[in-house]
Write a structure and sequence with these properties.
Blueprint lengths: L1 H23 L10 E3 L10 E2 L7 E2 L8 E8 L3 E12 L2 E4 L1 H5 L6 E6 L12 E10 L13 E5 L24 E6 L11 E2 L3 E8 L1 H14 L11 E4 L17 E6 L2 E13 L8 E5 L4 H8 L4
Parallel strand pairs: 2-11
Antiparallel strand pairs: 1-15, 3-12, 4-5, 4-7, 5-6, 6-9, 7-8, 8-9, 10-12, 10-14, 12-13, 13-16, 14-15, 15-16
Length: about 300
């Protein structure tokens, strides 16, 4: 039995490394040190340690009941968190398009809801296999616009104090002010991923598009690359004058939220950023959910 498990784990590791390399190649190189890229997903079978997100703090139990962990399973032996997601209702989860496209063909996807610590079984947590996955028809993969996806769950979630949906913003709304990101993404500012067990949270200012665009354009011009930021599709958060706070690998697809009149509104899905994460001052880029509310509602309608 031990030999069989060892062989399976070796196969998983080899395939995961190949998959990680393929995802990493989707990045757009700006300079030899810092690159804008859809963050490579954590390696299947990778270790988690108890540390904080880059500049963040531990979330309290049930503080983010809309948050899910999107995971993949290999041979029912190895299961691994790869992305975040936001509960929209009992059977639909919002995530990033690159999370959907990044699910390895040799795995099956599922979600865990009602989670704060991925290292322990928590009271009230629920699991559902993903029945079907959707990406926007204009999403081409890698760093770019239309990076949005939906997960249709096989088993409906039972809503509770620890499992609740977030509301969608108004179609076309322009987010401003402060926002909160949450996730189980890497807390490392180097190329070596360091994954936390505990859900992390961080409040960051929304960067006006013109300021974010100017910052990214300067980096792009340095190496003659095309600026991948698109106003109609993206929203930026973070600080342009200091490093050390932001999203990273494993946060992809997860929620960027604001609380409006006491209700949680999901305004962004983690899309791309600069790697190594927060090694230098740079924005984290999210898919602007308000640009896709009509698309979301069309796809989660009962006919689907």
């Amino acid at each position: 039995m031990k030999t069989s498990i060892s062989i399976a784990l070796a196969l998983v590791a080899a395939l995961a490394c190949a998959h990680g390399a393929a995802v990493a190649k989707q990045g757009v190189s700006l300079n030899p040190m810092v690159k804008p890229m859809v963050w490579p997903m954590p390696s299947i079978g990778g270790d988690f340690i108890s540390e904080e997100i880059i500049g963040g703090t531990d979330a309290d139990p049930a503080e983010f009941p809309h948050q899910v962990s999107m995971q993949v399973s290999m041979l029912w032996i190895v299961e691994q968190h790869i992305c975040g997601g936001t509960i929209l209702n009992e059977e639909w989860v919002l995530t990033a398009g690159h999370c959907v496209k990044g699910v390895p063909w040799y795995t099956s996807a599922f979600i865990l809801a009602g989670k704060t610590n991925l290292g322990v079984k928590e009271a009230g947590q629920q699991r559902s296999a993903v029945k079907k996955m959707f990406t926007h028809e204009k999403f081409r993969g890698g760093v770019g616009p239309y990076d949005i996806g939906l997960l249709h769950l096989k088993t409906k979630l039972v809503l509770s104090d620890t499992i609740k949906p977030a509301k969608l913003p108004a179609q076309g709304a322009v987010p401003t002010g402060q926002a909160t990101l949450s996730g189980w993404g890497s807390i490392s500012t180097s190329q070596e991923l360091v994954m936390p067990k505990q859900l992390q949270k961080l409040d960051l200012p929304i960067i006006p598009f013109d300021a974010c665009n100017d910052a990214i354009q300067k980096l792009s011009d340095a190496n003659g690359e095309k600026n991948p930021l698109v106003e109609s599709s993206n929203v930026c958060v973070g600080h342009l004058d200091k490093a050390g706070q932001g999203a990273c690998n494993g946060d992809s697809g997860g929620p960027l939220i604001q609380v409006v009149d006491g209700e949680v509104v999901v305004i962004g899905a983690t899309s791309w950023g600069y790697f190594p994460c927060q090694a230098e001052a740079a924005p984290s880029v999210y898919t602007k959910v308000s640009a896709f509310v009509d698309w979301i509602n069309e796809n989660i309608a009962p006919a689907h």
